[in-house]
Structure formats: structure tokens, C-alpha cells
Q: What sequence folds into this?
């Protein structure tokens, strides 16, 4: 309360000024004591009222970093536990190969592995497989690009962009371990005949590129916990196909490069 009435007068409690009406007092408060007036208005506002009805939130979100968005989401979940259901529902929405590739482009190596594990823990094995497939395609392409550099003795692969690209992704051993983990668990049920036919040559292509890279830079293939790239052949067996036979057969890109020499 910033005022008190004296008879028909209105007195300002901030400076003891006396006015003939409440209306005059309000004008005085706005001009002389704006902060208390604003505070009084804010205290009387409903907590459900928007901060600014003209403020568009969508453009504002674009200026936030991924870390800031994550923090805001976690705070919102702590404030309203019912939002957890919406979070789980969003995670369970089907992930297309195209959207998986887009999301992977926005992630670093650690985030990609965490996302795959998060999908698995949420019971969205098919989404985990779809994102892992996109990650494996990126890994295969990076390995094959490095193979080209390794075959060219004139290029210094240790300072090449191809090496930098490969190192920006999870190691082959770690990716192979993810395939083995998913296929040995409940995710194997999500793999139909068509997906198996698609994934099988993908795993075989990685195995072929791994064999080439291993001759020069075997350390690049080992996962952070010592996972070996041999897990790709083990995953191929779990997939229900013969990985060794396919691994000896180079990918189309590798065969094309070999023929151009």
C-alpha cells in the first residue's frame, strides 16, 4: 500500500505529499515513484498472465543454445511433472531416416550415443535403430573418405580434413558395440526383412573400410572403453546374415575408386 487517506485527501506514503484525490495521487506515483507503481501492478497481476502478449517465443528460441534449451526443459519438468508424459510421447514418435539424418547433423559424437541410448531406455527401439543407422552411414562415408587419402601416398592423412571428419564421429568400435547391444536386446524384434536387407550391406561396407584403415591407423577404430571394430561382424551375425562373406566384398564406392586407379 503506497497511500493513505486523510479525510478527503490522499497522502503518498513515499514522500508524505498530500493530494486532493486518488487520481492525482496515481499520476504522482507514475511520475515521481515509477518503480513502486510498477511493482504494485506486477503484484496484482495474475501469475497466468503472459509477460508480454506481443512477444513471439518461437524466434526467441532460435537464439538459445542446445544446452540452454535442455536446462529450460528440465526446469519445466521439475515444475510440472505432467510434462514428462509429453516428453516420453515425443520420444516415441516414429523417427524417419530423413529426420534422423537431420538430428544427427546437429549432434556431436557424445550426444549421438546418448540419444541412441535414451531412445532404447524409453522403449523406442525402432527410433534407436533408425538413428544408429544414420550414424553408421555417416561413419561409413567418413571411413571411406579416409581410405582414399590413405591410398594416396602423397597426402598427409594425419592433418587431413578426412581424419578430422572421422574423429568428429563416435569410433567404429563404439558404433559396432551399439549395434551389438541393440540387436542382442529387444530391438531385434523391430528389424524386419526389409530393414535387415538395408542394414546388412551397410555393416559390411563399414567392415571393409575398417579393414583398410586398420592397416595404417588402428587406434582410430577403438571405442572409448576399448570396444573393437570387430563388433560389426558380431552385429551382422545377430542380424541373421553372414557378415564375413559380405565383409570381404567392397562397397560400390570403394570398388569404383579401385577401378579408377
A:
Amino acid at each position: 500500500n503506497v497511500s493513505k487517506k486523510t479525510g478527503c485527501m490522499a497522502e503518498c506514503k513515499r514522500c508524505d505529499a498530500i493530494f486532493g484525490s486518488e487520481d492525482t495521487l496515481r499520476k504522482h506515483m507514475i511520475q515521481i515513484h515509477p518503480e513502486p507503481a510498477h511493482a504494485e501492478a506486477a503484484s496484482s497481476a495474475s501469475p497466468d498472465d503472459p509477460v508480454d502478449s506481443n512477444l513471439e517465443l518461437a524466434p526467441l528460441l532460435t537464439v538459445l543454445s542446445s544446452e540452454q534449451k535442455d536446462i529450460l526443459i528440465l526446469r519445466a519438468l521439475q515444475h510440472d511433472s505432467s510434462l514428462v508424459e509429453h516428453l516420453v510421447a515425443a520420444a516415441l514418435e516414429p523417427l524417419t531416416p530423413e529426420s534422423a539424418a537431420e538430428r544427427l547433423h546437429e549432434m556431436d559424437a557424445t550426444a549421438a550415443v546418448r540419444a541412441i541410448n535414451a531412445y532404447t531406455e524409453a522403449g523406442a527401439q525402432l527410433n534407436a535403430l533408425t538413428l544408429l543407422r544414420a550414424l553408421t552411414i555417416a561413419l561409413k562415408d567418413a571411413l571411406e573418405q579416409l581410405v582414399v587419402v590413405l591410398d594416396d601416398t602423397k597426402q598427409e592423412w594425419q592433418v587431413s580434413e578426412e581424419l578430422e571428419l572421422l574423429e568428429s564421429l563416435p569410433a567404429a568400435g563404439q558404433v559396432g558395440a551399439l549395434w551389438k547391444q541393440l540387436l542382442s536386446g529387444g530391438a531385434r524384434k523391430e528389424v524386419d526383412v526389409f530393414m535387415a536387407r538395408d542394414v546388412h550391406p551397410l555393416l559390411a561396407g563399414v567392415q571393409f573400410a575398417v579393414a583398410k584403415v586398420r592397416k595404417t591407423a588402428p587406434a582410430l577404430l577403438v571405442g572409448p572403453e576399448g570396444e573393437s571394430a570387430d563388433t560389426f561382424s558380431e552385429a551382422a551375425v545377430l542380424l541373421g546374415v553372414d557378415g564375413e562373406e559380405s565383409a570381404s566384398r567392397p562397397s560400390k564406392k570403394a570398388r569404383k575408386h579401385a577401378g579408377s586407379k
